[in-house]
Amino acid sequence: MSNQVIDPNVVQGTLAVNERIKGESKNLRGTITEDLSDEITGGFTADNFQLIRFHGMYQQDDRDIRAERAKQKLEPLHNVMLRARMPGGIITPKQWLAIDEFADTHTSYGSIRLTTRQTFQFHGVLKPNIKLMHQTLNSIGIDSIATAGDVNRNVLCTSNPVESALHQQAYEWATKISEHLLPRTRAYAEVWLDGEKVEETNSPVEPILGDNYLPRKFKTTVVIPPSNDIDVHANDLNFVAISDGTDLIGFNVLVGGGLAMTFGDKSTYPRRADDFGFIKLADTLAFAEAVVTTQRDWGNRVNRKNAKTKYTLDRVGIDTFKSEVEKRTGIAFEASKPYEFTSRGDRIGWVEGIDNKHHLTLFIENGRIKDNDQGALKTGVRKIAEIHKGDLRMTANQNLIIAGVAKADKAEIERIALEHGLIDSAQSNQRQNSMACVAFPTCPLAMAEAERFLPEYVTQIEGLLGKHGISDEHIIFRVTGCPNGCGRAMLAEIGLVGRGPDKYNLYLGGNTQGTRVPKLHKENINSAEILTIIDELIGQWVAGRNEAECFGDFVIRVGIVAEVKNSARDFHD
Ligand code: SRM
Ligand code: SF4
Predict the structure, then answer these.
(1) 437 is a catalytic site residue
(2) The pLDDT of residue 1 is above 70
């Protein structure tokens, strides 16, 4: 009889295919190098299709031309999307100029796409240019290690440049956490940077992530209240900055947020993160590691749809998970310190920091930086980068901050921004508080349009706000092209989730602080039907709201949708 001890917190069963792929990958090397020199296909084969994700890339093709190529008996025009690692989203002007040039010369879309996780993506890089891309990035101090795959992803940090001292400290922790949780394998350097092949003799190679890496993707933030601009409840692990007024003294730790679901599978749901308690600053890395290793050991490796930390917490119980983290650190959580979130959006326009520097937040619709008929945004940002002496900051709302501008340089930067359509005083609050994921044509999982659909649709919502006499107000409105939730519609006051061409589920009832998951109101309806519903609801809100009551609070108070209090129990009710 076997005397193996079965851990009751581990799901038993046949392991998911990805577990074999990771286990056999020689710590993420696979046969990527061999695939790179295969000129017969523009794509990556079998396991390597998954493994390149751990190096920050996804294989894609342009879905607008997929059917046409199939008719011509051609394989899809394979290319890769790259996502850079940028803890806290900070990039220097010199780095910006280099990525701007690469986007022009080596990507099929000629754009830089700012993401909802404070970094940028290149879309449409062909196989012969992939190595050059990594080497170009490396030459300016940027990599794309672990921005995708079953690892800890890009670590977010509140963009706030105003309270510069506190931001600097929080940013340093975001960077330290990112570095601490990175894979230790040298696979990235070997495959992309022609790094020397060194036998990895340590066993395990990955002391924190484990040689099978994590059961699923893992997301971490450092947030500075009262701004919740990085949306903590979308993330597995959050460090809420607590200060004594001047300096950071520690963090409240929130665990188990996440927004994805699968239509028709009630065991999946968007979920808020739970409050575990306060930790001292010096213990931050120990706690980050303990949460990650607990999820590593207890996360579901049988069913990837139930593999994220949010499901582990609901399966084993919050108290069990929390005690395990305390056991692994040898330190108990203290009672949480009080804090409050009051906003989520970026402050578009100029603000002055306590360091007397000026900061200009540019609203970039859907994060797409490109020159086209509507404006020369890309040229404008490049011209600013050519003269700017501070840094640039990508926000988790897909916007860009020109940070640290001296008073004497303000006028010239503003002139360039105005000239290139980067500042538009006619832009409504509604537009500035609306967001969509990428979806078509690059995302292989998209069921409905999102990024290409949003601008015109927001114009129609602006019309409705005008009709009801509240043009200056806004409702947090977000669209995602499928239920994976990349545009964070599952934390919006009005969220649209794509089901098929011009078909969406309509969710209502998130709030302005980002602390509530919305609830399904109507299923599988088209955008015109949704507009009629929104029109009627805005009318009711204007007529019946309490003072300063946001749209999401109103629809719950008057019973249009029920409040989601505990996702596992009541999201699908
Ligand atoms: Fe995402 C997959 C784009 C933020 C949940 N996401 C994808 C892929 C890579 C499609 C794929 O797997 O082939 C999309 C590529 C589209 C393209 O062409 O660029 C994609 N996700 C994005 C971005 C670019 C959306 C954007 O408009 O900015 C965001 C990049 C973030 C980054 O820089 O790392 C992005 N994704 C998110 C978020 C929001 C967040 O993290 O704040 C979520 C919801 C939060 C969460 O994780 O619960 C999110 N993406 C997903 C999921 C569902 C994960 C799950 O728990 O099941 C997938 C699919 C998957 O992993 O299987 C996915
Ligand atoms: Fe693609 Fe869906 Fe994510 Fe949108 S939400 S980018 S459609 S995976």
Answers:
(1) yes
(2) no
- The DSSP string of 291-325 is HHHHHHHHS-SS-GGG-SHHHHHHHH-HHHHHHHH
Asked whether the CA dihedral 428, 398, 307, 87 is positive or negative, the reply is negative
Alpha-carbon distances, residue 265 vs 261, 271, 387, 572 (angstroms): 8, 15, 52, 10
Q: For 317-326, how does the pLDDT look when each residue is reduced to its tens digit (9 = 90+)?
A: 999 999 999 9
pLDDT at 95 over 70: yes
| pLDDT of 383 higher than 70 | yes
CA distances from 485 to 126, 159, 245, 312 (A): 27, 22, 35, 19
Query: Rounded to the nearest whole angstrom, what is the distance from the C-alpha of residue 366 to the centroid of ligand 1?
Result: 14
Ligand 2: atom nearest CA of 436 is 4
Q: What is the pLDDT at residue 2?
A: 57
When pLDDT is averaged across residues 150-158 and rounded to a whole number, the result is 97
- Ligand 2 site residues (CB inside 6 A) read 437-439, 443, 445-446, 450, 480-482, 484-486
Ligand 1 atom 32 nearest Cα: 117
What fold does the segment set 430-570 form as a domain? Sulfite Reductase Hemoprotein; domain 1 (3.30.413)
Q: Catalytic residue at 113?
A: no
| Helix ranges restricted to H, 388-494 | 410-419, 429-432, 454-467
The minimum-distance atom of ligand 2 relative to the CA of 450 is 4
Edge to edge, what strands does the sheet with 477-480 contain? Answer: 434-436, 477-480, 494-500, 503-508, 519-525
Q: What are phi and psi of 181, to 5 degrees?
A: -95, 5
pTM above 0.90, yes or no: yes
Does 479 score more than 60 pLDDT? yes
- pLDDT attached to residue 527: 98
The angle at the Cα of 231, spanning 226 to 234, to the nearest 5 degrees, equals 145
CA distance 567 to 261: 11
C-beta separation of 215 from 151 below 8 A: no
- Token pair for 7: 């851990």
Position 449 confidence tier, pLDDT thresholds 50, 70, 90: very high
The verdict on whether 344 is a catalytic residue reads no
Alpha-carbon distance 142 to 138, whole Å? 5
Measured in angstroms, how far is the CA atom of residue 354 from the centroid of ligand 2?
38
> How many separate helices (H) and strands (E) can be counted in the chain?
18, 22
Shortest-distance Cα residue to atom 2 of ligand 2: 482
**Is residue 223 within a helix (H) or strand (E), and if so which, with residue range?**
strand 220-223
Rg value, the chain, Cα: 23
CA distance 260 to 269: 6
Sign of CA dihedral 198, 203, 207, 209: positive
DSSP states of 234-249 as a string? GSSEEEEEEESSSSEE
